[in-house]
Amino acid sequence: MAAQAQVDVGGILRPQGSLDPSTALRPYSERLGSRAAAHLLRRAGFGGTADEIRRYGSMHAGEAVSLLLDAKASPGPTPDLVNAQAPLTRRDVRDVLDELQLWWLNAMLSSPAPLSEKLTLYFHGHFTSRATPRFPRITYQQNALFRSYALGNLRELTRAVSKDPAMLIYLNGGANVAAHPNENFARELMELFTLGLGNFTEQDVRESARAWTGWHVDRRSASAQFNPALHDGGSKRFLGRTGNFNGDDVVNIIFAQPQCARFFATSLLNWFVYNNPEPQLVETVAAMLRAHDFELRPVVAAILQSDVFYSARAYRALVKSPVEFVVGTYKVLGLSKLDAGALPALAQMGQRLFFPPSVAGWPGGQNWLTSGTMIARQNFLTRVLGAQGLSASVWLHGLPLTPQDVSKRLAQTILQGDAAPAALFELQGYLGGAGSAALGTLSVENYDQRLRGAAYLAMATPAYQLN
Amino acid sequence: MQRRNFLLATASGLAVLANPDHVFARALAQTPLPGLPGGTDRCLVLVNLHGGNDGLNCVVPHGNDRYYQVRPGLAIDRHDVLAIDAHVGLNPGMRSFKALYDKGMVAIVQSVGYPNPDHSHFRSTEIWQTAAPDRYEHTGWLGRYLDDAGLPPANLFKGVAVSKVLPEAMVSNRTDVPAIPGLREYAMIADGNATARRAFAQQARDRRLPFESPYLAHVMEIEADAQRSSEELPRLVSGYVTKASYPATGLGRSLALAAQIVGSHLGTKAIYVEHGSFDTHVSQKTTQNRLLAEFSDAIGAFYQDLAAHGNDRRVLTVTFSEFGRRIEENGSRGTDHGEASPLFMIGGGVKGGLYGQAPDLGATNMGNVRFTTDFRGVYATVLERWLGRPSAPLLGGEFVQLPVLT
User: Fold this and answer.
1) Nearest CA in chain B to A437
2) Which of A23, A256, A441, B17 has the highest count of CB atoms within 10 angstroms of its CB?
3) A408 CB-near residues (< 8 Å, 6+ apart)
4) ipTM above 0.95 for this complex
5) Residue B16 lies in a domain
């Protein structure tokens, strides 16, 4: 038996086995089938309903991915409180934060373009900013910015983010003036957003901070403004080049570094495929990013259609984030709307949207799972499965009455069959009223209740925690 | 770790789960904790006074005229200060705390901070919790300690956060630290599925799964931990009876649970509790005086409870706040984000008194108290002299320790 994968710094694990770099990015040509379709829907979105899994399962990878790429993003109407007169009062702040989070979660659940929402979530964790509670429009606008670039150009997005009011507030852009440069944004731009530690010097931080001087935010109008009088117009030496650079120049110089494409390639592979991708795989995707001038659409398309994406090493190789866990549960149960009860559950699982734990975003991997967050996950399932309105759920209707058929169908829909034989046997036994539970046989009277219990058990298996 | 070992560990966990006879509790109480000098059952309680506690109205420089000049609307009146000496005293709400100080159980470490202070709550909190002012570190200083301390792997309560969400200070690479807001909350919802869940949980550990995942072992381990610890915890602490009267505040409840955990001898080495918010930009006096009174009353009850069970020398309590506040008051009878501030170290093992340099209200850092004691020196003291571990690997360097423990 092979040794457990090494725990890399940060609890982020690479799958066992070795990569064949020569075939990794080759297009996968098979018809998907339900297991690969569910995998694609989990990674490119937030999972699928039984119908969606069936529909995508009948397609080839290319066809399925085109469908996901071509869907038009439609997050639903702007929440009212976003348009309220800012600054909000203390009482309204709580409401608007809840409303904004629910609004986005429901977009993830119901959007016709789940891939857009998935990339919006990716950018939220990558170009982190924290909520601006009293000025919710600023937070909302940043979310909309991420969505509008979901399959767009990474360089242009980086330029836009650098002038985004939420980012200017979060990383002290407003305090960065010619007389007293503030290096916060300049440093994080390179360390966490585009290059990574070791690929720039302290001098690069100081010099580029000067290039970013002069931007500040008018909070009430939620707009960024440039004041030339506060800008340092002098010459800067940055990443080996000298010139009278402004912020856009700085981004362009960064994106000309070979490391920048590697950095985003690593990050995208971590998000879509598996953690800690091999350097050869990173190089291949980095070359694609450069070849496409940092356009995301063709690169994401290639990743989602690749051999490595559908390989056994990528399958269930990520830990579901709380958002993926919660939205995916609503989705597979065929529920149409998240209610406010999902928010405290998400907080207990360790993920509050618009409140990443640090400028480095959510660390992911093993970090999602502790006893406390696991209890929160299980209790969330109990609550959802006990809730009223669930019997409208699609898969609860039309199921046959035999424990064998029901357990098979549940294991298929919820787990794509990814359960151990003993667990499937126990699930069937529970449905039939056998074993320690001593529940009595399955009948029309106890059908609904028993099915909820069985769904809970299926969701309590290890596979359900994995994406 | 080999998968084989993991399986064995899980199998023994299951045996414990199936046995209703408190084998687990007894085993824990008897397990010696390796690597510690002297007492093996010492515990650290870390209290986060979050929001930025104003140090100057907490440990009040009542002998300093400048304090009264820069805080015309906010200074604590000389007559109200609980004087320690002619220079400093405590906030008037801190009577119980002052009593502990008078017993020699409180060390006040003054002007604690770190180089290049960050004024963001968020970042500065992260700096204190990770003990990494100069880099981004995803593990916390106590998380790294728990990973490193060689504590019994079967113990699920090596560290406990009395909070809803695991604080960064206790984020680790290998140790599962439960966040336990209260005994009632740290439980699987008791519904009709409880029996089925237990039976099912055992079957679900069948490893003949049709997929592999680098995270599978971890998921299974945590699922077992969650089930076992939430079932065991209420039983493990049920024998503890207290006569102490804790205030009916969040901190009062948190410290009551901490005393119960300490007194139940679970082998817990670190407990984290929270109190706040001290972010007093507006009308500071009302808010901060109340919060400090709550702190003082809860700590008073805590040590009364600990002493009644002979545990007061087992527990070192250390406070921290992400920063102090601006020396001058602002226009709204409040104070804005500042820099260095005092912290407290409390317990029967403490040599009481004042440590570090008092804030110099003249020579400031752009209106803020300059730090003269690095907080990592406090952590080093705790790690080396209380918990018995080398601090340099955990803190990323050597820091000057304080002679604050007996």
Assistant:
1) B196
2) B17
3) none
4) no
5) no
